Amino acid sequence: MLTQIQETVNYISEKTSLFQPNAGIILGTGLGGLVREIEAQFVLPYEEIPNFPVSTVEGHSGKLIFGKIGGRNVVVMQGRFHYYEGYSMQQVAFPVRVMKYLGIQFLFVSNASGGMNPAFEIGDLMVLNDHISLLPDNPLIGKNDKEIGPRFPDMSEPYDREMIKKAHVYAQKEGFKLHEGVYISVTGPCFETPAEYRYMRIIGGDAVGMSTVPEVICARHMGVPCFAISVITDLGIDGKIQETTHEDVIKAASKAEVKMTSIFKHLISEHI
Prior knowledge:
alpha/beta
């Protein structure tokens, strides 16, 4: 793996004139609008990057963008990879490893998710304070390379507590609602049944989606702190469950992403 990482990093460094990002950002379904806030310097399509998977899902553009947000150097994944696309967990999380070796000190992640907390409405934002993985695999399974991270990484703080506090302070100052809760990751690609929503609520979930956890596990494996936001694009709450399409998710995410972008931009410019 280290050989593949280094090959990819060498290619990217050559194409970006050794650009060194302070933070990495992964944008979820329908949440690519953050790129409008970036002073882009280099754009690399995924298909041109050695060892990189390629996005196959609508709402994921498939570009690695290097530039500045609030005066800070960032690398942004405009589109991510999912287990349900047929990629291995190692492939899904591979870009996070590359970003670490490019120099990121912090990882920001966004996703579109189904809300199970009765307090949630479509378009709300939830900061992740923990997660539950219902995925059938883990990106760390297999031989471990000590140069990359420890065999048994600690996960007592998957999401940075100080950054969560700063996000709440900022949201309150700006006058918009910001929830906090536990994200459950599943394989997809089908949306959940009512019984599955009830089950996931019972075991402690506030929102459910098909991403994020593999990337966060790999980031924490390498000692990179994480901050993540879910945009609530549909509801898995008794009495509020409606038929949902991928197009509905993209539309709801796009409407809510302005607030998410505002939080990311503030945290990066003021606290990274």
